[in-house]
Structure formats: structure tokens, C-alpha cells
Amino acid sequence: MVEIGYKGKIFKIGASVYEPAEDTFLLADNLDARSGERVLEIGTGCGLLAILAAKAGAWVVATDINQAALECARVNAHAHGVANRIDFRLGNLFEPVAERFDFVIFNPPYLPIEPREAFGTPLDLAWEAGPDGRVVIDRFLNELSEYLTPNGHALFVQSSLTNVEKTIRALGANGLRVEVVARRKLSFEELFILRAGASF
Fold first, then answer.
1. Which of 114, 128, 162, 193 is the most buried (most CB within 10 A)?
2. 89-98, pLDDT tens digit by residue?
3. What is the pTM of this model?
4. How far is Cα 69 from Cα 148, in angstroms, rounded to an integer?
5. HSE value, Cβ hemisphere, 13 Å, CA-based, for 56
6. Domain 2-197: which topology?
7. Where in the chain are the domains?
């Protein structure tokens, strides 16, 4: 198990858990969870974003398809004193939830990869996203509006590798507004933080 730091906070990362990188930290830098909100984080990994939201006073549901990630996130939530504000659930995308949320957070897998090159392990699924990098994000976009409260919004990562304009069009087709909140240029891609909702 390794440890990573974010703004003075330490998080433990198990060997089978996605290690936060530039995409996670860019999302964290723009996280604006508010006290009393109902928050959903999809693909919580080590729990960093869910914990930050809980520390802001939100009530959080944190999901992941990787059981090892949920166990790691629980350890971190206890260490940061917010385990009582986070409900951890095993499952894929919106499958573990039936309720609506004020705020949805997602750092989706977006690495384009051919099926024959994919490993498909719980850890690899944190970045493997099909030939065009959109296998997961398209499902998320199609279902998002069903899980938002009337004034709810989502904050999520997109990469220049996976056609950001297509994402913006898909959100509009589902009746959601979208704005680019932040962007960061890396060596082989540009990361975008998008906010989407009926109103914000």
C-alpha cells in the first residue's frame, strides 16, 4: 500500500486500486460540494473525492465496481473522520443507486483501447474505455439526467482523446446545459472538467 497527499491530506492506495493522478487532482481542485447536499461519486477509487465532499458537509454515496477500491476508500474515510457521512456501494455506474442527487462526481475511464489489448481486471477498468474511449462516458451521459434533482449538476473529467464536442452535444440532447470549468494541457492530451445540469 502506498500513500499520496493532496493539500495536506494523506490517502492510502492499495495495490489493486487506481492511484489518483492529474485528472483526479484537477477534479478535486474544482470540487464545490456544499453542506447538506446529496452527492454521488461514481468510481470512487481510494475515496479522495468522496471524502473531500463529506468534509464539506455533504452526504455522499460512493460507488465502484472494484471491491478492493471500496475497502480502501472505507479505510481512508475512517482515517479522515467522515465514514459516517459516506455510504459505499458496489456496482457499475448508476446500477447501485435508485435515488436522485444534487451533485454527481465522476472521473471516468477514457483511455482508447482495442478489445484485444484490454485486460479487463477491476484495476484496468479504471482507465480502459473501448476503441474510441467512450464506452463508459456515453452510458453515463445517457443516464445522468435520471439521477439529478431538478437543480442538480454533475462535475466530471473529459480528455481530448475522447471527443469533448461529442460529449457537449450529448448533454444538450438530454436537456442539460454544460460549461467547461477548467482545463489542463498534458504531454499527450488535454484534460477538461465539465459541469452539466438543467441549471447552475
1. 162
2. 999 999 999 9
3. 0.92
4. 25
5. 19
6. Rossmann fold (3.40.50)
7. 2-197
